[in-house]
Design a protein that fits this description.
One of its GO terms (molecular function) is DNA ligase (ATP) activity. The protein is of the alpha+beta class and 295 residues long. The protein is 28% helix and 22% strand. A hairpin with a 6-residue loop joins strand 7 and strand 8.
């Protein structure tokens, strides 16, 4: 029998709660739902008003993994949806605005991925993102070195950057921005990636060419394009263990070489939120957004 629970007055059928989704640790679907409910206060503000792409892995990361962008069949009528522009024509997507919708979406077993714009202004970017991806034998240690350089370079343009782990191998840099389109922000991000490669040619790569990746950090600037999405803060990732795309302090980034790792599991996140609050909260303050230099 499928358990029925009530969340903020909404009745939800939650299935297969004992199913192991993360084989390395035995982390179950019930624990996934508990994790998302526990971090909802810090996660929801980063999802609000953003159309979601779901990376679904209903049988765990070793099973079928697939992206879902359109509203899934059977979506409750009380879950917010919005029509969003696409090059191939408008589509309707889910927008998670409350705890009940978050638990419903988590029951589908999903990573949450968001664009760098909100539904009210789909042509205007309010986020800038760099995805720092290490090519072995490079690791997150090298990503941290590149992140510090990018932080200082962004600061020179009046833009304050914040960091989070990707939840996989690398690191994400984010900043709140205003006054530019997704195309303009993408062009600016590419200029900085090219500049980083010029300054650190043995460490940085701004092109996706696989043959050039070993030992370098690929600075992926392309996720600023309006059609692209990035793993949301606090989302679980489809890995062997329940790793999280977790916000980190700059002290942790700068000290990464000493510990040689920067990985956080679901069980780590609630204590970190208790200690630090939401390290990415400044991204939600529109008054702190930087202005992207447009050429």
């Amino acid at each position: 029998m499928t358990p029925i629970t009530e969340v903020e007055g909404r009745r939800l059928a939650l299935s297969n709660l004992e199913k192991v989704l993360y084989p390395a640790t035995g982390f179950t679907k019930g624990e996934v739902l508990h994790y998302y409910a526990t971090v909802a206060d810090v996660l929801l503000p980063h999802l609000r008003d953003r159309p979601l792409s779901f990376l679904r892995y209903p049988d765990g990361p070793d099973g079928q993994v697939f992206f879902a962008k359109n509203v899934p069949p059977g979506t409750p009528e009380w879950v917010t949806t919005a029509e969003v522009p696409r090059s191939e024509g408008p589509a309707r997507m889910v927008v998670v605005q409350d705890l009940a919708s978050l638990v419903w979406a988590a029951n589908l077993v999903t990573e949450f991925h968001t664009p760098q714009w909100v539904i009210q202004e789909p042509t205007v970017a309010d986020r800038l993102v760099f995805d720092l991806d290490p090519g072995p034998p490079a690791t997150v240690v090298e990503c941290c070195e590149v992140a510090v350089w990018l932080r200082e370079r962004l600061a020179a343009d009046g833009i304050e950057a914040y960091a989070k782990t990707s939840g996989a191998k690398g690191l994400h840099l984010l900043a709140a921005v205003r006054g530019a389109s997704s195309e303009q922000v993408s062009e600016y991000a590419k200029r900085l990636a090219v500049e980083a490669e010029r300054q650190m040619p043995r460490l940085v790569l701004h092109r996706m060419t696989r043959s050039l990746r070993p030992g370098k950090v690929f600075v992926d600037w392309s996720q600023n394009a309006a059609r692209k999405t990035t793993a949301a803060p606090y989302t679980l990732r489809a890995r062997a263990a329940p790793t999280v795309s977790a916000p980190v302090t700059w002290e942790e980034v700068e000290g990464c070489r000493a510990v040689e790792t920067l990985t956080f599991l679901a069980s780590d996140v609630a204590p970190r939120v208790q200690d630090y609050g939401d390290l990415l909260a400044p991204l939600l303050d529109g008054g702190r957004a930087g202005v992207v230099p447009v050429q």
